[in-house]
Specification:
Order of helices and strands: EHHEHEHHEHEEEEH
Helix content: 40-55%
Largest sheet: 6 strands, antiparallel
Strand content: 15-25%
Oligomer: single chain
CATH topology of the largest domain: Alpha-D-Glucose-1,6-Bisphosphate, Chain A, domain 4
Number of helices: 7
CATH architecture of the largest domain: 2-Layer Sandwich
Shape: elongated
CATH class of the largest domain: Alpha Beta
Distance between the termini: 106 Å
């Protein structure tokens, strides 16, 4: 029992979680929820295209906020005079936010940051293969109905975007090239909607990006005036106005896959 008149020693409350650490945690949770939930909701048909993309952008913003608030929380926790805790919570939040931002930049932004703002690419701009089986799906809601209409609307930007993509020319038979093209499409895990050897046409789809947006592909194989077998390919996105170079890269990957199917491969614009 303390003597009368003795003043009890002051009690010290344990350090509390800093505001920055709390905010960083909430930002990180919100970022993960939206970055994973928005694409999943679109894939199962719960959300529409525009809403899911908008929520994904909000999620990316929250990831940036989590990273910034996490750094502030770490500094606050390491400052002796602050008398707050939350350093470990801030570290995890900053790591989650930073990792999400790096993944978005690496997989979605940087691969095509300098690509032209178009979404329809072909090896034959003057005589592009046209969609048949997927025509209605591809052109639904568009302000144009053909590649040339789209090119005219974009003031020639489409046809001049990728001059390195050229018609592929072979000294092999139509059947050999067609079979190789279909095999290359399957090697790339495209879904083949139609393959008509008599017409020399293959139409396929590729579920691109984490949202699963469908990109349409049409391959045309025929003989040219000189008797060589020529192949043209077109890849176009159904969704959005800019593909970040995705369709051009798809055509390049197809060319590489075709090389594996035809070891004695040769290609020029004119034989």
């Amino acid at each position: 029992m303390e003597p009368a008149g003795t003043v009890p020693p002051p009690t010290t409350s344990p350090p509390s979680l800093s505001l920055a650490a709390r905010m960083a945690g909430w930002f990180a949770v919100g970022a993960l929820f939206l970055l994973l939930g928005a694409p999943f909701s679109y894939r199962i048909g719960l959300l529409g295209e525009l809403i899911s993309i908008a929520l994904f952008i909000v999620g990316a913003t929250l990831a940036l906020c989590a990273f910034a608030a996490g750094l502030v929380g770490i500094v606050r926790a390491l400052t002796p005079s602050a008398k707050v805790k939350g350093g470990l919570n801030s570290v995890f939040s900053a790591l989650i936010g930073g990792a999400a931002l790096v993944a978005i930049l690496h997989f979605m932004v940087l691969p095509g940051w300098d690509a032209p703002r178009i979404h329809d690419v072909t090896t034959s701009p003057m005589d592009p293969p046209e969609f048949d089986v997927t025509r209605v799906a591809h052109y639904a809601g568009r302000d144009y109905s053909t590649y040339r209409d789209y090119d005219a609307m974009m003031k020639g930007k489409v046809s001049s975007a990728y001059p390195e993509l050229r018609t592929l020319v072979f000294d092999k038979s139509l059947r050999q090239v067609f079979v190789a093209a279909e095999a290359a499409a399957k090697d790339l895990n495209w879904t083949v909607f139609a393959a008509d050897p008599a017409r020399g046409r293959i139409e396929a789809g590729d579920w691109a990006t984490i949202f699963g947006f469908v990109d349409d592909i049409v391959i045309r194989v025929r003989l040219n005036a000189a008797g060589y077998t020529v192949l043209d390919i077109r890849s176009a996105s159904r969704t959005g106005t800019a593909d970040l170079g995705r369709n051009a890269r798809r055509i390049q990957r197809f060319t590489e896959a075709l090389k594996n199917q035809l070891p004695q491969y040769s290609s020029t614009r004119t034989p």
